[in-house]
Amino acid sequence: MQVQIPEHKAQIGGAVFFGLLSLLLYFVIIPREIVFAQQKMGVSPSYFPNMLSGLLFIFAVALGVDGYRMRHRKKQRIYSFSLQETKLVAVTLILIGLQIVGFDLIGYLVPAMAAIAACMYVFGHRNYLTIIVISVLLPVAIKLFFEKMLQVSLP
Fold it and tell me: Which residue has the higher pLDDT, 132 or 43?
């Protein structure tokens, strides 16, 4: 089964989604997750995330305005997606959620390895040697990069 959506509706839907996401980030997630420490100089730790969520909101509004302006245009792209594609997106979001929970419970490496391996398998990759090599080496490389180059420790 294919679902078809005209371009202007896709843009307006995307604008609503990203607009709400930016507001959630700015008003709920960033204040809850970033601890503010009194500083004599420099910027707050929440400065960069707040700036990005503000930019996301501005782009969402621009996307919505563009979608609204093109609603009567006859030549629009038609976006179509299948139920199978929707299932893949849902499974990926569930895997990401499980990975985030795993980070809190057991740290970075094991959940990252499991999530990469599961995503590769779900999206059709069946060469198990490649799955194992990539799902082990990529998180280790990322962890080393953060800890050695950026001097940020991961859990």
Answer: 132
Q: Left, alpha or beta for 92 (phi > 0: left; psi -120 to 50: alpha)? A: alpha
In whole angstroms, what is the distance from residue 102 CA to residue 108 CA?
8
Contacts 24+ apart (CB under 8 A), 79-87: 79/4, 79/5, 79/6, 79/7, 79/10, 80/2, 80/3, 80/4, 80/5, 81/2, 81/3, 82/1, 82/2, 82/3, 83/1, 83/3
Contact at 8 Å (CB) between 85 and 66? Answer: no
Question: Encoding tokens for residue 58?
Answer: 């501005």
pTM of the model: 0.68
CB atoms within 10 A of CB 112: 21
Q: At residue 40, does pLDDT exceed 90?
A: no
Q: Which two tokens stand for residue 51?
A: 């700036």
